[in-house]
Amino acid sequence: MYLNNYLGRRLSLAVTGAVSIVGVVIEVTSAVGGKGRFGQFVAGKTIASIAMGLAVNIVPVYLSETSTGAARGFAVSLYQNVQILGVILASGVVYASSRSTTASAYLTPIGLQFIAPMIMIVASPFLPESPRWLVWKGRHEEARSAASRLFLSSTNSFDAAKYIDEIQIAIEAERSNENAASWADLMHGPDLRRLLIAVGVQSLQQAQGSSYMNSYIVSFLTSTGVTNVFPVIMGLYTLYYVAVLTGHFLPDTAGRRPILISTALFCGVTLTIVSSLVVAYSNPPDVAKKASIALIFLWQTSFGVQSPLIWITTVESAPSRNREKVQAIACFFGFGVSLLITSVSPYIQDESHGNLGGKIGFIWGAFSFITAAWVYFIVPEMKGFTIEQLDYLYDHGVPTLKFKGYQFDSIDGESISVFDKKVESQATMKKMEDQDV
Question: What does the UniProt keyword field contain (predicted)?
Answer without folding.
Answer: Membrane, Transmembrane, Transmembrane helix
